[in-house]
Amino acid sequence: MLQRIAVRAACGRQLFSASGRGSSATSTGGHIANLANPRAAFQRRTLIRSADSGGRSREEYDTLNVAKMARQRREYDRTWLIFLATGSLVGIIATGYTGWRIKELMEQNPKKLDATGTPQAGEVGARKVVVHDKDGREIVPTGNKTITEFPRTVDLPLKLVAGTPSSAIPSSDPAAVIVVPPTDGSDGPGTEYTLVGLGTRTVSFLRFEVYVVGFYVATADIAALQNRLIKRVNPIATALVSGEKTELRSSLVDANESQAIWDALLEEGIPERSLFRIVPVRDTDFPHLRDGFMRAIKAQSTRILANEPEGTAKANFGESMHEFRHIFNRGKAKKGRELLIIRGADGALSVVFDDGRSFGRELLGSVGDERVSRSLWLNYLGGASVASEAARQSIADGLVEFVERPVGTVAAQVV
Questions:
Q1: Is the model's pLDDT at 12 over the cut of 60?
Q2: Looking at the chain, which terminus has fewer C-beta neighbours within 10 angstroms, N or C?
Q3: Does 46 have pLDDT greater than 80?
Q4: Cα-flanking dihedrals φ and ψ of residue 44, to 5°?
């Protein structure tokens, strides 16, 4: 019995040592296989322990440079702070520059802060904005990028105006005209004209800009024009109130009523003296301007001549048109140069041009037929199709400003 137990114990020890040697061999072979195939080592798993997955060992963590990592973190934070500060600075500079540009644009084209440039509900029309230039002269912004401003008043020597009435001579009737001191020793006394309204003439559906035009009335003649317009709306009034001003403005921009109003006024010689100031926005020539004026005169004169008897009057009108055409047989009219078309007291038309040379304004010629100037004036003031709708709207606004004041006070205010 005892012998059998001893044999079993010896056999067990042999098996244990054999299994240990086999296990060591297996382990050694497995490590060799793992070295040959690292992916197999990564994928091996046991219930108690996973195989090495390529993570850092404890020794690696023990050798980490904490100071270096802290320094890198500080550098990262500093870089991020610089980036944020730069963005904030750029934003402040951009905001300041935008505000500065807006201020400059508002100074170039000043407007009331509560005005939108177009009439609001209950508002009769936009008012002219009058500012002063660096020399203290009163100017009116045009809204045009090329010709940015027009003078509020124009002073013309009497020698440049055809058909100057005797009442305009200061020595005979000082109250009939505002006398302007001569600009040099040879100009003599002159007449002051006040701007009523202005606008830009455009052509074709592309709205190419041709020139800026302004309508001026002799300051001394404003009272007569003011009185006639007021009496047309309210015969017993000396100034118009809001509803009456709206009625008058609607008539002045209506296709049919505006033509009837201005046709009657001009035929009666009201205003007695007026002019259109034309300044090209691009280089052009006199024949080009002449052709446009001729077409406008012919369009209006057809209706005017239809009411006159056949015979000498119509024949004389043809001669007047030939005279008008001859005035414009000239060369270039450069950008920014001033062309004045003046209607005198008897309806005679004068053309004055300033080519920018030392001579200043020069009289190019005149036409005595009143129908020529009346036809040309109607081309801007009345009818279904005018040369510049913007100018007609602005002129209507300017006339409304006149009639809201008592008769005779506008000229005194200008002076």
A1: no
A2: N
A3: no
A4: -70, 135
